[in-house]
Amino acid sequence: MLPFANDYSRGAHPKVLQALVDTNMDAQPGYGQDKYTKQAAQKIQAACQLPDAEVFFISGGLQTNQVVISNLLDGDEGVLAADSGHINFHEAGSIEYTGHKVLTIPGVEGKVTAANLQAYLDDWKADENHGQMVAPGIVYISNATEIGTLYNKQELAALSQVCHANHLPLFMDGARLGYALMSPENDLSLPDIAKYCDVFYIGGTKVGALAGEAVVFTKHNVPKRFPTKFKRQGAMLAKGRLIGVQFIALFTDNLYFKISQHAIDLAMKLKQALKNKGYQLLIDSPTNQQFIVVDNDQLAALKKRVALSFWENIDSTHTAIRLVTSWSTTEDEVDALIALL
Amino acid sequence: MLPFANDYSRGAHPKVLQALVDTNMDAQPGYGQDKYTKQAAQKIQAACQLPDAEVFFISGGLQTNQVVISNLLDGDEGVLAADSGHINFHEAGSIEYTGHKVLTIPGVEGKVTAANLQAYLDDWKADENHGQMVAPGIVYISNATEIGTLYNKQELAALSQVCHANHLPLFMDGARLGYALMSPENDLSLPDIAKYCDVFYIGGTKVGALAGEAVVFTKHNVPKRFPTKFKRQGAMLAKGRLIGVQFIALFTDNLYFKISQHAIDLAMKLKQALKNKGYQLLIDSPTNQQFIVVDNDQLAALKKRVALSFWENIDSTHTAIRLVTSWSTTEDEVDALIALL
Amino acid sequence: MLPFANDYSRGAHPKVLQALVDTNMDAQPGYGQDKYTKQAAQKIQAACQLPDAEVFFISGGLQTNQVVISNLLDGDEGVLAADSGHINFHEAGSIEYTGHKVLTIPGVEGKVTAANLQAYLDDWKADENHGQMVAPGIVYISNATEIGTLYNKQELAALSQVCHANHLPLFMDGARLGYALMSPENDLSLPDIAKYCDVFYIGGTKVGALAGEAVVFTKHNVPKRFPTKFKRQGAMLAKGRLIGVQFIALFTDNLYFKISQHAIDLAMKLKQALKNKGYQLLIDSPTNQQFIVVDNDQLAALKKRVALSFWENIDSTHTAIRLVTSWSTTEDEVDALIALL
Amino acid sequence: MLPFANDYSRGAHPKVLQALVDTNMDAQPGYGQDKYTKQAAQKIQAACQLPDAEVFFISGGLQTNQVVISNLLDGDEGVLAADSGHINFHEAGSIEYTGHKVLTIPGVEGKVTAANLQAYLDDWKADENHGQMVAPGIVYISNATEIGTLYNKQELAALSQVCHANHLPLFMDGARLGYALMSPENDLSLPDIAKYCDVFYIGGTKVGALAGEAVVFTKHNVPKRFPTKFKRQGAMLAKGRLIGVQFIALFTDNLYFKISQHAIDLAMKLKQALKNKGYQLLIDSPTNQQFIVVDNDQLAALKKRVALSFWENIDSTHTAIRLVTSWSTTEDEVDALIALL
Predict the structure, then answer these.
(1) Coiled-coil regions in this chain (chains A, B, C, D) (predicted)?
(2) pTM of the model
(3) Which of the residues C97, C104, C299 would you substitute to probe the D interface, choosing the one with the greatest number of D C-beta atoms within 10 Å?
(4) Which of A49, B172, C83, D161 suits A240 as a labelling partner, its CA being 20 to 30 A distant?
């Protein structure tokens, strides 16, 4: 099977895995107190050009969203997200599990815009009954978004300004941040993101790690006793080193960015081929996820040879599917896929 | 001020209050074990023509929704409601507080239709990723709805059928059930509701009681140790008699229905007057809540004389307002309001 | 049956009920925005000699404990209580329902002592693993305690000092505060309590009201948007007036204190009679709850004539029971009980 | 530093790590749908001699306890545990986070005994107020216990019988199950545990894996849609293979048991040396955790050369410490430690 279902179907990048092998027998303290976790944090501070960023490592993306959002919200607050946001649909109600509502804003290409956020907040303030409603408490975005689109610098700066004018922290889910930053359409740097966002995470699971995301608080805004808080939520690994070691490898010699670039190059080759072959793009994505509409007979045939993702039913005879490249996709695999399409 | 802001601005119907006075010094067990609570339950079983209905009394509507929904949902399930549903907006996130998501269905005149529910369930089943999504676990409706509209018997029967075919309990919020049942457009009886719904509540707070709602489980489907469960949620009064005594009074000599009829008669008189005067009805409501659009200058003037409810901003110069009659509204008050409009 | 099971077996004191009758038809805003709620708050500020106390009304004691504690705790914090504390046993896990642990301290006559609290805190700080434990976040006491005992001024001052030295708010559950303050052994005033505690409540349900407790925040320490927060928890009555009106009556002409005094006088008469008859007091209680040990044959006989409370099994032939007086107990009832004992 | 602080200070057993390397580039579905997870489950079914056991993999012990307990409890139920139970102290309130109380039973050498459990249940049933209390819903034990002691077959059988007679599932935390099973004092087999327990887990994190625990439901008693439920709680890894691959390695050629035996052999050597040198054993532990009391001056000296764990303060000049061996401890390290003692 050609592996285009997602960007987490293989293990770790060989250099990441080698780092685990190399450090394996070094005895270290548990629960994130090991030297590797500290070094990884320093690597990320450097990459963000923010020496006083506070960095924590969590094992998965859903868990990171859950832990960050719930600990930054006050009791009666909810999280604002685009209606297509990952936390609103595909995380099994993990935000509500923590007692908080996901408040939705109409997305524009999957993004929360400054204008739509401002409109939401204006409506909320103007509603004389808002004391009986969930208060907006944090803004959640993802970059790349759930549908592979990107925030540009102007959009992120404008959104950040609205957030801060309204005392709302801005949180970026960066599960696919590497793929976003390496897109030909991207104009944001990691320091830009650290500047505009109050907290964000750099995704490892989908970008070359076995598991692990690096959460970065950028404004001296870490919740008090945060490790105890996320331990209580089940999100602390005994062997925190597992993630620390991997992030050291990912942030050595720009590995994170190089392997993201590789995935993007292949995604752009695939996208061009899809266009050439006349496929309807469901979304014009500049990142590693490509969405097309296929008829169901073709889909059935493709599924015998290609691992791909169902996206949504279009009509009784057509389905939208997702094809994803990753750090591990080979050019041969892309060529084979193109030949099948 | 003329009191048209809501249907809970005065105390209790005089007969209800008198019942509290009459029983005041009778010593009774606490926590709903008193004889009045038992008698009230019997009155409601009789009114529903369902002798084995299981009846509980809770002090308010939000609390009842919270307690019923959360105890009927399995861990990963959510509650389906119309997008305009009360629990989705004006209950301060009380469902999410219990760890569950409100899943919204496009409402038709504020109602969940059998067709829209079926479409939601079909989509959910067809989505190959639904294992990563909140599962539908109960259907919440209100009658009258948040915007004063009614389910007719055909609609409720059809909805009930879809619910039961999909093993979903159907829960009706009857905060304004008296006003629904007495509407000229209503064709449902209390026994009909007991037949089609798995659980519903008969609202007291808005229909003549100081506080209290009667929850009716109709299908031998009470959660195990339900009183302990809702006690744990803070919803059990030490003096459960407070609600029991009131419901005895409300269900003696058809008081509940007579005082509801009174409110509906006045609402219809008001509605006709509003039409005669050329007001734009925001919604064509057959119950005790009437919604009109007024210009903001007129609104400012009205507010000096009338207690009314902001509903929503229409545009920069117009606002939708709500005018509500109740068991306690007098014909003089309605006439005075009409004179001001 | 002679009513000695508890202090909430009858309705409201006649003057309280009359106040409800007198104000019944006055239309007022809902959700605690009515004038009676405001007046009641002022009455309580005056009684506490604390004009800037912030006062809220909640319908029951368990709910008040739940709402106050959960909104004053940070995510990873728990509430410290005596091991015999009401919240630890008889509230059905209502604190844990909000996600927080009850941390227990060995009680001394049902009380948290300054020394035992300090010892707990010292141990916690000295434990090198305390980052993996629930952090102490608030101290819960009740006065009178679960077993009828009292804090004296010296004890409360000492406890308050330890709390404040450790940045822990001190919360007093005053479900039976009237009975505590009127005990012959009491040396605390309401202003003392307002001085030493950060938040406390004045119980109405057990002292003459149908339902309702007055929560007093004494140090400008109300959680932000507290009403929205407790609405979300199901604890806000639509007709907030119900509680406000009753507290106005209770705090007019010292009614609250007079009716508490009445209950204490009868309890002391009962206690003396129990001693004279040679009963073993389980606890030497100076308030309205008296605890004795009886043999099970006598208990069976008593239960035919007296409503009383099971307290605990002592051995196979003896049971501890609780006998409670209240604002509504009559001298005839006490005499009749004594004659039976 | 000599690594005796815990059993999770190093990475993975070399064979476990090699298995990750060998399978690294094989593309597999995510979220536990991969072939390795299935194979690992079969290995565990075989080891338990229970072909229809239902097996799931979770990344850590605290998270496993949280996920299993919360999904097996009904709303108003709590989990029974020994007062010294891990979930009661060192998991940061993770059970309470899910809304449930930890109900404690006096432990005997860290164990819940059948007699003490029966006594708890008898008291609970005899308490006439138990409807206002948390109901017992599941029994949690750990083997080896928090203090290194073991359940023998007779004890476990008796406990299981009391559980089942009372309709309480019995859950064994097996974070250190390998070390328990290889103890010279053990008489339980994995099939015995599968027989007596309703659910248990086989710990990987402390026994040779980077992360991961295998949860085994033995009585066709998996909660409905369990994977969605634990995903919602943040406990599902995208690359479920990470754990599956490791457990295949651990359960190939008895690796799990061999490496556990190694740790036990070294622990027994250490224990004998401690006895020979006259140390006071805090607990007589037959497993890989040894507890001794040292004076604080010696402790300060030891800490310069040995990574060890603080256990508890004994008095102002003595401290109890824990010394732990693991799969990765070498005989040289034990000898070096003994030389220092």
Answers:
(1) none
(2) 0.97
(3) C97
(4) A49
